[in-house]
Amino acid sequence: xxxxYYDYVVLGSxxxxxxxxxxxxxxxxxxxxxxxxxxxxxTSLAQGGIAAACxxxxxxxxxxxxxxxxxxxxxxxxxxxxxxxxxxxAIAWLQETGVLFDKxxxxxxxxGLEGGHSRHRILHVKDHTxxxxxxxxxxxxxxxxNITVLEHCMGAELLVHAHPAPFCHGVSLVSLExxxxxxxxxxxxxxxxxxxxxxxxxxxxxxxATGDGLAMAHRAGAAVSNMEFFQFHPTALYQVNQHxxxxxxxxxxxxxxxxxxxxxxxxxxxxxxxxxxxxxxDVVARAVLNEMRRLDHPCLYLDARHLPAGLLQQQFPVIYAxxxxxxxxxxxxxxxxxxxxxxxxGGVQTDLEGRTSISGLYAIGExxxxxxxxxxxxxxxxxxxxxxxxxxxxxxxxxxxENQAQQQHKQPFGKILFSLTDSTVVEPQVEALKKELQELMxxxxxxxxxxxxxxxxxxxxxxLAKKLDKVRAQVGFSPAIxxxxxxxxxxxxxxxxxxxxHESIGGHFIEREQxxxxxx
Length: 520
What we know:
The chain has helices spanning about 15-25, 60-70, 75-95, 130-140, 210-220, 250-255, 280-295, 310-315, 315-325, 380-395, 400-405, 425-445, 450-475, 480-500, and strands at about 1-5, 10, 30-35, 50, 120-125, 145-150, 155-160, 165-175, 180-185, 190, 225, 230-235, 260, 300-305, 335-345, 345-350, 360-365, 370. It is an alpha/beta fold.
């Protein structure tokens, strides 16, 4: 077992994690822990862009209002106001760090439109904004002398001392390359581990998005909130017999003029919402699923055939190339799409400085619940939230006297969460249980829910946990088993939150109310 000391440690290397690291590195040594490679993140998959009110006729007030409307009235208005006010500074910092946003013909930054926005305010780099942001931040982090990157390491448990009050003084990790374990002691720990889309059968999230940070925080006693609000993106690319990560068709394609249509080519979204194909994501996802069920069809379609020639290839080169690679010509063919789990709106509860209910522990990005998203995230607010709250968390972490005092309270290490076994022995068994979990969550706690299904889901998750306990008793622990325990924890939190909220709102829709319009 290795023992390492840093001033600050951040788990996750997406936009939130690397922003925190770069800001904290001006004040001490920082370890960035990556479950995979440093660039393998949800951030790198973000296509649409980053929202900010940059120029007239747009305004911060309008951006705030659009966010509150999309969040169905459950946003923390103070957090929304804070994020929107900090947006211009966040954009300027990204540009200084090397992000080259697209320019319009007049030389100004180009602004796109997405669902739920009343103005063009989406800064972007073609349809690979996240990849460009990731690349710029990775380059800055790798050349910073105070930042050490630990790749292929998975967080196992937070080191929390309970007296006189709970504070986090480090984290236990497991190397995914050689199954060795290590402890990191630090003044402050930041969770930037992203979401947990892998709890569902269909998701746009990568395989590493298994809710590790959320589960660790929950085990440590940190407050968690709003887990019933999981956002489903309405336009993931539908591929028959798909066995890999679901590919996203950005909302910006609809912002550029593409329409959602039925198999016969008819538009239908205006029957559900006055904004049509650019309605908030929760409304569109439910409408798509409803029409798929009504028609007993495996997918619906995105129609971009009427757009100007060459526009898709020029503005959305990644999406265009992906479609062509599977035999779809977006200029001539309808693009098959289905809804998929996309973004965790709830998470570890934080304040405006990223502080959790445990001193010394911060949560930023998708793992956190700042209250900005409420019941449903407004498109392209996620990258913005990651930058803004990572900056505020780092600013607090480097100045907080309680974090400095932690260094005076060295404690013996708590017991490691597991003793490792040969991963190849357990992987087939664990993978089967994981697929079972994903299927039951999609069936019982997906886009449209009812109390009976949610209760059934809770029983099945409990039974799955017992099966996993038996596997663990037989073969010991492994990273795959730990990952599945994390997903089971997330599933329990989602199901519990769903059962506690009886009304339909935002991303939480109760089936018994389907007689009402889905947009209500």
